[in-house]
Amino acid sequence: QIGAGVGLPGVVAAKCGAEVTLSDSEELPRCLRHCRWSCRMNGLPRLPVVGLTWGRASPALLALAPVDIILGSDVFFDPKDFEDILTTVYFLLEKNPHAQFWTTYQVRSADWSIEALLCKWKLKNTHIPLESFGADKEHLASSSLPGRHTIEMMIISLARSDGT
């Protein structure tokens, strides 16, 4: 899981039997400590937690084991990070061409779109309707903030050479 924060989605995946590596910024040691604490409190003291900074090739990024799914929960929060996130995701998908990046995205503004970046990095986006798994309830997928702030789920993967 990238951008793990305290690691809830990754901890749940590990509890369900998945092999998980949690990560957050190497520049946020306190966040990494909280993530490790969350793992211990959930009976997963040996779950790997690594420091990875989006957009930066580091020894930790290069040493990651093969992955099938990259999980990102609300990582597209600050537009200044969008390209760095997709750079890191692209690197991981190139290293693991069969893998997919499963993520959520809260639509906060039309100016905050990732569509152009997906094209730039030759990534494709498959929209997953929230109703397909019962998460389209107003209390789950909306916000009381003014404007459109709905949650979207998507799976991002490498685009084929024909762009699809």
UniProtKB/TrEMBL annotation:
One Gene Ontology term, aspect cellular component: nucleus
Keywords: Methyltransferase, S-adenosyl-L-methionine, Transferase
Record Pfam families: Methyltransf_16
GO BP annotation list: methylation
MF annotations from Gene Ontology: methyltransferase activity
Protein family (similarity comment): Belongs to the methyltransferase superfamily. METTL23 family.
Listed name of the protein: MET23 protein
Gene it is expressed from: Mettl23
